[in-house]
């Protein structure tokens, strides 16, 4: 842990972290992009999960919705990683020690792994799901996805208060 703290100290004092922290407008601009990316990510994941649950867009085939939404989901996720890394670099020591931040990272890891596994499963079975009922395992995965991403958002909001 001391080595990680030393790395965090170095990160926030050099390069982008230092520039972001010292700038009047850079942190808010990056945070705005981060929030827009999160909104896009949550919207695309949410729509897809609601379709799997049969609560929205029932007429839309799962495979077509997957092809339309999931690329935007992964783009938004990439924006989150880049902007989140930049925000982290500006106050790395403080954030690294924050339990809400650690919970957020754990939930992102779990949600990302779940999304990768589920996207692989949709590519294999999406056409069948479009023709008939979505299996209970897919509905469970959709519920899990919604809960994980809600947890990510909640943990992210708590970072500033812990």
Write up this protein.
The protein has 162 residues and is mainly α. 85% of the residues lie in helices and 0% in strands. It is built from seven helices and no strands. The longest helix is centred in the C-terminal third of the chain and has 33 residues, at 99-131. The radius of gyration is 18 Å and the shape is elongated. It starts with a helix and ends with a helix. The relative contact order is 0.15.
Q: What's the short version?
A:
With 162 residues, this protein is mainly alpha-helical. It is built from 7 helices and no strands.
Pick out its properties:
single chain, 162 residues, mainly alpha, elongated
Mind describing the biggest β-sheet?
A: none
How many alpha or pi helices?
A: 7
Radius of gyration: 18 Å
Distance between the termini: 20 Å
| Approximate strand percentage | under 5%
> What is the string of helix and strand elements?
HHHHHHH
> What's the β-strand tally?
0
Number of domains: 1
Coarse shape: elongated
Write the layout of secondary structure elements.
Elements: H1 2-13, H2 15-22, H3 26-53, H4 62-90, H5 92-96, H6 99-131, H7 136-158
Helix pairs in contact: 2-4, 3-4, 3-7, 4-6, 6-7
């Amino acid at each position: 842990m001391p080595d990680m703290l030393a790395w965090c100290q170095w990160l926030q004092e050099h390069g982008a972290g230092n520039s972001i922290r010292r700038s009047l407008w850079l942190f808010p601009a990056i945070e705005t992009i981060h929030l827009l990316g999160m909104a896009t990510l949550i919207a695309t994941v949410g729509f897809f999960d609601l379709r799997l649950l049969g609560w929205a867009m029932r007429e839309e085939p799962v495979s077509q919705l997957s092809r339309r939404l999931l690329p935007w989901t992964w783009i938004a996720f990439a924006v989150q990683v880049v902007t989140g890394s930049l925000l982290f670099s500006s106050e790395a020591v403080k954030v690294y020690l924050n339990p809400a931040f650690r919970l957020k990272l754990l939930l992102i890891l779990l949600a990302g792994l779940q999304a990768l596994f589920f996207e692989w499963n949709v590519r294999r079975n999406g056409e069948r799901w479009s023709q008939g009922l979505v299996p209970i395992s897919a509905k469970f995965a959709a519920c899990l996805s919604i809960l994980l991403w809600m947890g990510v958002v909640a943990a992210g909001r708590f970072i500033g208060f812990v």
